[in-house]
Amino acid sequence: RLLETDSKSLRSVNGSRRNSGSSLVSSSSASSNLSHLEEDSWILWGRIVNEWEDVRKKKEKQVKELVRKGIPHHFRAIVWQLLCSAQSMPIKDQYSELLKMTSPCEKLIRRDIARTYPEHDFFKEKDSLGQEVLFNVMKAYSLVDREVGYCQGSAFIVGLLLMQMPEEEAFCVFVKLMQDYRLRELFKPSMAELGLCMYQFECMIQEHLPELYVHFQSQSFHTSMYASSWFLTIFLTTFPLPIATRIFDIFMSEGLEIVFRVGLALLQMNQAELLQLDMEGMLQHFQKVIPHQFDSGPDKLIQASYQVKYNAKKMKKLEKEYTTIKTKEMEEQVEIKRLRTENRLLKQRIETLEKESASLADRLIQHKCSSRYSEDFVLQLEKELVQARLSEAESHCALKEMQDKVLEMEKRNSSLPDEENVARLQEELIAVKLREAESLMGLKELRQQVKDLEEHWQRHLARTTGRWKDPPRKNAVNELQDELMTVRLREAETQAELKETKQRMMEVETQNQINSNHLRRAEQEVTNLQEKVQYLSAQNKGLLAQLNEARRRQAEIECKSKEEVMAVRLREADRIAAVAELQQHIAELEIQKEEGKIQGQLNKSDSNQYIRELKDQIAELHHEIKCLKGQRSFSDQPTFDGIHIVNHFTGDDESFHSSDEDFLTNSIQESGVNFHLPRRTGQMSLDHTLVDSSDSDTEESALQTGNSDKMVSKQRRTESYSTTV
């Protein structure tokens, strides 16, 4: 509100100064208002930082709105630490010890240091202070989290932190970001979380921008080709630093949600241009056009991003779908691997059985040919042969069944959304067949060359048979022809050796590719297992969150019940205090009555009527006190522990001090509560201030002689009542 008020006042002052025609006064007033605006912003953020705990709990929405408008540069370091709760971490004390250790990722970190913010003054010089502190922070984290180690995209986030704060504080903030902001899962070697983010973002594009989604699919333009850097570096490698820093402010407050929002807003703004481009054009547009669209300021982009519909529940649902798909793919791959292993074992068994069958057949033939073996031995060999043939037939049947299972599993795998594994196997088979065809072609060429050489050799022999009959010149020509033939033979041998070398090279490359495919599949299996562990840990976190929520609700219910009990006790204490005050008022009225009797200021004619009225009032007050006490006795709520009422009665239960009853009547009438009660009898004298002073002398003797004995006797019958609080 202060910022908006100052901006309005600034505009009004500028307008008035322009109309006045004094440019010098206008510029001075504008600069003073700008400084005033900046000063108010500093005061506001300083107050927020000083009272952070209360502001974060009570005014969380207002803090988010202020962060979206931008954090002042000088407050950014402390506010980032407060937003991620990294201001007091025990790992900060271990930082100096970590720097003394050796990390296996040091060479990779050194190699990528020069690629991080190469145009920024703090990092562009080799072995500068910026590169050194960046290396220290990345090395320390690779030692803390050895599973993640080092990933190139993380260096840009650490570099931005180092632009705002010292290296120890930057290290603590980076550890918090990795642990609590899903960055650790993004930077793992498997990058399973990045695959999930790509799946969720692609589903958002399909929902909000269906035409652009169809265009991307038709051009085979995958989401990871342009959006992976958005999630890995939080737009730090996409936009200039001022715009990326504003987005990073919101990321510190709201998490990865802002990356989804900004990414979809960018696609909405550039949808018309992207629909007109092919794959290469779209890549060029993302790399060269989009980064400079908001050089004037990021406010337009941030406003557009918060007009994007983001449903957290739907994102959770998409996460479950992605986990289900990956789990099913992993199960299919495990099943196919098991069937292939069984198939290989069965083939080995069949080869072994074929060898045994051949050896038995040879032995049988040898035994039939030789006469010295008995017929029993021949029969035994025939039985062994029959058994071997039966086992071979069983093996063939089992092999056929396994092959059928493999075909069935491949069909099921082809129905899944992801056909990468089957496609890889088909590509490997095609490559092997192509290499085999090339080797056959090379072999045919070699055979043709050998035939040609043999023809040349036959001709050469035919010519050399009559060499001794030819003249010298002809012999010289023949010698040259012999040398030419020798050269051709050597050339053919060289070509044959070259072909053989190429064939060996192709075999080595094929073996290398097969080994790399095996390694890739093993890595994929490890990735799937890690994803399963991650899913189980996330499920465990969800259950813990539900347990904490149940405990919180139970605590709230207990607090409410305690508050209700306390309120009931307070109401009961108020009622008891009201009764005590009424009883005190009754006692005061009794004293006033006795003073009126003693002084004799009541005339006989008017006193009886007034006494009756007072008796009626006292009776009503007595009855109201009984009603209040009866209401207390039937209440099931516990009494207030801090107040105890002790009543002492003597004599009849019908007599109380009249002053308390009068007070009760007045208090009940003031509160608007009316009771219809029967009258009770009692005695009370008039106050001496209510009787005319002129009649006091004439009525004194009559009152004293006629009523003094009666009133004194009744006064003795009145009860004593005391209240102890």
UniProtKB/TrEMBL annotation:
Single GO MF annotation: small GTPase binding
Coiled coil: 329-363, 443-631
Chain's gene name: Evi5
Species for this entry: Emberiza fucata
Record-linked Pfam families: RabGAP-TBC
Residues in Rab-GAP TBC domain copies: 70-255
Region (Disordered): 1-29, 690-725
Top-rank lineage group of the source organism: Eukaryota
Biased composition (Polar residues): 701-710
Biased amino acid composition, Low complexity: 10-29
Stated name of the protein: EVI5 protein
InterPro entries named among the record's database cross-references: Rab-GAP-TBC_dom, Rab-GAP_TBC_sf, Rab_GAP_TBC_domain
Keyword terms of this UniProt record: Coiled coil, Phosphoprotein
